Amino acid sequence: MPRKPMKPCKHPGCPHLTHDKYCETHSKVLYERRPNASKRGYDNNWRAIRKSFLKRNPLCESCLDKQQITQATEVHHIKPLREGGSHADSNLMALCHSCHSKITIKYRPTYAYNTTLQGE
């Protein structure tokens, strides 16, 4: 079966073509630099907190602000853990997948682990 055509690497400014999201060079560097989920604070304790929070907050807070009713499926940290945020309810928001994706893209740096790759 024929393969899909190659597409540009998602790393800003990279001219390489790939079948994946990132070319071989950038996927290795990004994978090596990013700690696993557990080391970033998303362990069994987080999964229990997330489940409990979604049970108590079943609707997307962002959609409710727009007078829409959408089931929340994800929990967003208002202040990210890497910036000193916590799993406290006051730092969490219940969101649908669409709203969580929009907020994450809007407030995340171009790529959090990208700083050393600028010259490549």
Q: How much of the residues is beta strand, in percent? A: 5-15%
Count of separate DSSP helical elements: 4
Principal-axis shape equals extended
Number of strands: 4
In whole angstroms, the N-to-C terminal distance is: 34 Å
Helix and strand content put the structural class at: alpha+beta
Q: What string, H for helix and E for strand, traces the elements in order?
A: EEHHHEEH
The gyration radius over C-alpha positions equals: 18 Å
Q: What's the rounded overall pLDDT mean?
A: 83
- Biggest sheet layout: 2 strands, antiparallel
Q: Helix fraction?
A: 25-40%
Q: Please state how the strands of the largest beta sheet are arranged side by side.
A: 1-2
> What are the low-pLDDT stretches, counting only 5+ consecutive residues below 50?
110-120
